[in-house]
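Predict fold of ABC transporter permease; 355 aa.
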Amino acid sequence: MTLPETSVATRRNRRRASSFATSVLRFVVTVVTTIFGLLVVTFFIGRVIPIDPVLAIVGDRAPAHLYERTRIELGLNLPIYQQFFIYAKQALSGNFGTSVLTSNPVLEDIRRVFPATMELATIGTLIGSIVGVPLGVLAAVRRGSIADQIVRVIGLIGYSVPIFWLGLLALVLFYAQLRWVAFPGRVDIVYEYSFSPQTGFYLLDAAMQGQWEVMWDLFRHIALPGGLLGYFSLAYISRMTRSFMLNELSQEYVVAARAKGLSETRIIWFHALRNAAVPLVTVIALSYANLLEGSVLTETIFSWPGLGLYITNSLQNADMNAVLGGTLVIGAVFVGINIFSDLLYRTLDPRTRSR
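Predicted 3D structure, encoded as tokens:
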């Protein structure tokens, strides 16, 4: 290799290293800024809500000296910036305080209930992806047809109808009238003491232990709330799939493929959908994050013992440590999935690596 060629290669490597370092720095700054903003928001939520955390601990009949001592122990007598510093330090170390409702550390309670929320959101995302992607492809391929109109109406209903109303309607129909599903909850009381979950993911535990009767009961409990979340996920995923596919089907490579005589099935499923799958992966990941943070009403309606129901019960009992801890965890998970989907998008699409 000649000297000029060596110099060009060196400059190219330096540019690549500089670009990589800039991307890493930008990523770190984004993560730190987002987490800081999340801490600020949750901290001021705890200060804005008209609930006295001291009264929630000592009760409204406690003497004045006990009230003041508890207030000092909680650090509420300190300036607001010192309170935020203490709160951020404890939160980043995983110390969210003790729950007034359960008398357990909040982090311990979250570890206990969060697998139920993840299990529910996973079922909903699987339903939304498996059904929503083919529906979106069908709507795009038959644009303007009756099939397209039906898919768009399904998506419109999913966006428009309040989830609590649809959940109550589903309970009346599928539980009270048809008896197709089990009573709200996660598992029948008959199996509560005979079934010993290890991971917190009941379906996985039942399959690993070979308890198929328990697994069938778990499916009967999760079918309705999981199907409801799956429908709302389906509405979003099918709409985005339709949009991505319409964009891909209008590209020149599709015209060229048809000119070469490739079958329409191969063009749609092996070429257009393959290119649309890159942004679609991000959509599915964000849909999963939305189900994790947005299943509060669903868990409340179906008495599902997840993080959403835990936060709701804590809020009703003025348990602000639990409310803020749960909110912070949900926010952190949403941010994490968002960052993961962005990295996955950059990995799958080489065109974004140079940006």
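The mean pLDDT is 84.
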